[in-house]
Write a structure and sequence with these properties.
Strand order of the largest sheet: 1-2-4-3
Helix content: 25-40%
Radius of gyration: 31 Å
Order of helices and strands: HHHEHEHHEE
Number of domains: 2
Largest sheet: 4 strands, mixed
CATH topology of the largest domain: Ribosomal Protein S8, Chain: A, domain 1
Number of strands: 4
CATH class of the largest domain: Alpha Beta
Length: about 190
């Protein structure tokens, strides 16, 4: 059995806006922010606006004027951090992927550890290494709240823009490589 053809609505005529609707639409259009940086050309109305349109225009909130200084220079974007994948972590923990360098920060002050980490990551990046291990130590668990300072600070340092140009991502190391007291760090490839 054949289905009957679908019933189609007759095409609609384009409705013409009244002066009031046109003025309201213009006031709304002026308030929105475009997705792209295209300059919108505002056309002047052909007929003088009515009393209602002028009242609606007075009520409308006008956006801040955009300075006409030309294109603004773009800020260099720092690449986002990406956590290591499950497969990479597994291969590192089993020794299928090589840890190409290690840095031990045990017993260092924060300032010295930061300098050592910066120099180490710059060298690793320059040498084209892929995976390195940064050992922070676990810190002692106890009443003193300042134990394990480097364990808390190193992930924060690695998240800063100064290191994101060198580091793709990092994750806690496997227990065989130091567990919670060490980090696998993936070094960003240098661009030629």
């Amino acid at each position: 059995m054949k289905r009957p053809p679908p019933i189609l609505d007759p095409p609609r005529r384009k409705r013409i806006l009244s002066e009031e609707e046109h003025a309201l639409w213009e006031s709304v259009a002026r308030q929105i922010k475009p997705l792209r940086k295209k300059h919108r050309v505002i056309t002047a109305p052909t007929a003088p606006p009515s009393v209602e349109a002028r009242a609606a225009a007075k009520i409308a909130v006008h956006p801040k004027p955009v300075p006409a200084t030309g294109p603004q220079p773009k800020k260099p974007l720092t690449p986002p951090l990406v956590p290591l994948g499950r497969r990479e972590r597994l291969q590192l923990s089993k020794g299928k992927k090589e840890i190409e360098a290690r840095l031990d920060l045990h017993g260092m002050t924060q300032a010295r550890a930061h300098r050592a980490l910066s120099g180490f990551l710059h060298r690793a990046h320059g040498d084209g290494l892929t995976f390195v291990l940064v050992i922070t130590g676990k810190g002692k668990v106890g009443a003193e709240s300042e134990r394990g300072v480097l364990r808390r600070q190193v992930p924060q340092w690695l998240s800063q823009p100064e290191f994101r140009s060198l580091v793709v991502g990092f994750d806690e190391a496997h227990i065989g490589h130091g567990g919670a007291g060490a980090l696998y760090v993936r070094i960003r490839r240098s661009r030629l």
